[in-house]
Specification:
This protein is an alpha+beta fold. The chain is 36% helix and 21% strand. The protein folds into 2 domains: 104 residues, no CATH class; 137 residues. It has 10 helices and 10 strands. The strands form 3 sheets. It has a 5-stranded mixed β-sheet. Strands 1-10-9 form a 3-stranded antiparallel β-sheet. A two-stranded antiparallel ribbon has the order 6-7. Strand 4, helix 7 and strand 5 form a beta-alpha-beta unit. Helix 2 packs antiparallel against helix 10 and helix 9 runs antiparallel to helix 10.
């Protein structure tokens, strides 16, 4: 894949030689991520905007607007990588709140790009490992599905002997682009190509919204970059070779 810029200028800032973080690696390092798994996009979107994803949990949805303002995400970390010794497509959100029923809860978000018949078992194992690592009393898990496979309806509830694993499942293709936009859930905008009603015009609009509403230049560039990755993956299926996002041209040369 090659990238070209129009008159608006460079898509990413120049690298900061004093920093080793992904946020500051700049254009060349960002280019190296273009061929990585969609899991990277999912994890990064959650890391940048964790509160937007927390709102999918029933425990958060049941709170009033004022109560939701009392929740602060202290850390969005890859707890499971400590045990599994490899990258995983999930994050554990550690929150700080005075709401009593949530004080000892850790929120676990898993992103799935295709159906996995072992998912229920994996969630059970992951939850146990997360509790051991975080020392919290309760873990709530949420599975974000990108693949509209009918078998995904089987996920979310299963008994393993006397042990019941139960978690919430969100199908992103059932989430409307307009609703996401109206709720100002900027963290979900990179997923516009997979949202209900998220066509080419909405992809362009999403990129404009990200540019207008995210003032941090590094975060803005990363969010637009992630939107471009998902747009490219989605429209490759229809042999569309050019995706234009906010004046930047992404061309698939494969």
């Amino acid at each position: 894949m090659t990238t070209s810029t129009h008159a608006q200028g460079k898509l990413f800032d120049s690298p900061d030689n004093d920093s080793e973080t992904l946020d500051n690696k700049g254009y060349k390092a960002q280019q190296e991520t273009i061929d990585k798994s969609i899991d990277y996009v999912s994890r990064k979107a959650i890391e940048l905007r964790p509160l937007d994803f927390l709102k999918f949990f029933p425990e958060i949805q049941s709170l009033s607007a004022e109560e939701q303002k009392q929740i602060k995400v202290l850390d969005a970390n890859r707890t499971l990588e400590t045990y599994l010794k490899r990258e995983v497509d999930s994050l554990s959100l550690i929150i700080d709140t005075e709401i009593e029923k949530l004080k000892n809860t850790v929120f676990h978000i898993e992103v799935q790009t295709s159906y996995d018949e072992t998912m229920n078992e994996r969630i059970l194992v992951y939850d146990v490992l997360i509790l051991q690592k975080t020392k919290k009393k309760l873990v709530k898990s949420l599975l974000n599905n990108l693949d509209p496979d009918i078998r995904n309806q089987e996920l979310g509830n299963q008994y393993f002997g006397s042990v019941n694993v139960k978690y919430d499942v969100i199908n992103l293709w059932e989430q409307g682009y307009e609703e996401i936009k109206q709720q100002n859930l900027l963290g979900l905008l990179p997923f516009t190509p997979y949202l209900k009603g998220g066509g080419r015009q909405e992809i362009k609009e999403a990129s404009e919204l990200l540019k207008e509403q995210i003032t941090n230049p590094q975060e803005q560039a990363q969010m637009i970059f992630m939107l471009a990755i998902l747009a490219g993956r989605k429209y490759n299926r229809f042999s569309i070779s050019f995706i234009i996002i906010n004046g930047y041209e992404y061309r698939n040369t494969a």
